[in-house]
Design a protein that fits this description.
- By secondary structure, this protein is an alpha/beta fold.
- The chain folds into two domains: about 100 residues, no CATH class; about 190 residues, Rossmann fold.
- It is about 20% helix and about 25% strand.
- It is built from six helices and 14 strands.
- The strands form three sheets. Strands 7-6-5-8-9-10 form a six-stranded mixed β-sheet, sandwiched between helices.
- Helix 3 packs parallel to helix 4 and helix 4 packs parallel to helix 5.
- The longest helix has 16 residues.
- It starts with about 35 loop residues before the first strand and ends with a strand.
């Protein structure tokens, strides 16, 4: 178990709290109801510069209107709550990555809470509920079965099931790592595209509601690992899932990655730079609300969810 040193950008905790709060809706009419705090995962890093201690100020707009930032909880103030989901029917070469994933879990900072689950037929198999006993969580990681018979209805239904497990956890820094082919053909071949998968959209919505950034790693299925068309669609779906929730997608061509180690290293670094940013939302109407969070400094890069749905 390691203790991650406080890094700059993840401690960008001194935020401008004097932003103007708008009390009108985007259409110019007053929003109904009272303003409500919303928490979103935000990952910050300096472009091509070593990490240093520095104040980072943000401008946050919701539906185009400025909102007031209330707090920014850094890693030392809010331990990570992390779910790892692995699809059970992936190609056999993924089995050797179980050790890397277990080591990744074992080396998370003290206080982190980790859940291990497997995406398979029926419902999500939870091998370890959220726990801060990292060694026990690491021991729950097993190689995927690598059999076509272990194929799920589609991965997004069980990703949603995994997201609901966050409801029992403290609000703060949250993330999910999904190892999957990303392919949804549950409603026909057309549903395999990012714009047509209903359950992909549902997964994005549920992740945004729960402030969970999703990091995805693509691996092809054992049943048809060489289908370029479906693999490309699966990658596009995973990319949309990650981009719209504030995470990042990883893949290597349309085949299985040679190793997960470079991906896990990057994810570990990004998790160490994630803050839980809470702001006062003045848009109380139901539906999707678009977010735009920008740093005032040009050399700072930010990843955040596309928005959230009330």
């Amino acid at each position: 178990m390691k203790t991650r040193k406080l890094k700059l950008v993840s401690t960008a905790a001194v935020v401008s709290l004097y932003l103007i709060t708008s009390v009108a809706g985007q259409d110019g009419r007053a929003s109904r109801g009272s303003a409500k705090p919303v928490t979103v995962p935000v990952t910050i890093r300096l472009r091509d510069k070593p990490v240093e201690m520095r104040v980072v100020d943000y401008l946050l707009r919701e539906d185009g209107e400025m909102q007031t930032i209330l707090s920014a909880r850094a890693p030392n103030e809010s331990p990570m709550t992390l779910a790892i989901l692995i699809q059970d029917d992936l190609v056999s070469s993924v089995s050797v990555e179980a050790r890397s994933i277990a080591n990744f879990v074992r080396n998370q900072p003290g206080g982190s809470r980790v859940m291990i689950g497997y995406i398979r037929p029926g419902t999500l198999e939870v091998r370890r509920k959220f726990t801060n006993e990292l060694q026990r969580a690491a021991e729950s990681v097993r190689p995927p079965q690598g059999l076509a018979s272990a194929s799920p209805f589609n991965p997004y239904v069980e990703i949603i099931e995994g997201l609901r497990r966050f409801d029992s956890q403290p609000l703060g820094r949250r993330a999910m790592i999904v190892v999957s082919d990303g392919v949804d053909v549950s409603r026909g071949i057309d549903s395999s595209t990012p714009g047509q998968s209903l359950d992909l959209q549902r997964a994005i919505t549920e992740a945004q509601r729960r402030s969970v950034a999703i990091y995805s790693i693509f691996a092809p299925p054992a049943a048809d690992p060489s289908s370029t068309f479906l693999n490309a669609n699966g990658q596009s779906c995973l990319e949309r899932l990650s981009n719209e929730t504030g995470g990042r997608a990883y893949f290597q061509g349309t085949g299985a990655p040679v190793s997960f180690d470079p991906f896990l290293k990057q994810i570990d670094d990004l998790l160490g730079r994630q803050i839980a940013l809470t702001y006062l939302s003045t848009h109380t109407n139901k539906g999707f609300h678009k977010l735009d969070i920008k740093p005032l400094e040009r050399d700072v890069e930010i990843r955040h969810p596309a928005g959230y749905t009330r």
